[in-house]
Model the fold of this input.
Amino acid sequence: MGCSCKGNTLSTRTSCLECVEKHVGAATVLIGEVLNGYPYRLLAIGHLHEAEEESDTWPALRMVIRQARVRYQNNNTAPNWKRIHEMIVNIDPSRHGEVIMTRPDYLI
Ligand SMILES: [Zn+2]
Done:
């Protein structure tokens, strides 16, 4: 079974690192947009939640993403994108790349 991103409609909640990366990437963009005054807070929270759900196979990654979401919801503190990215790369080294976000722990 695979996730829905591969066209498999039998299960929409099988862990998929590609989808984790996709939702984390979306949240990165959206939280950056919140910083610029756009009303995307709920969308960003939703994407972080989706990333949580898609990372069920990797409990440490799931926990870090969950903690990041809860922290963002409670304190408006942006996730530590670099840490999350490093965990993804640790699972799949082919997903290496530079994290553009330069202020991982800023307050919004
Ligand atoms: Zn997927």
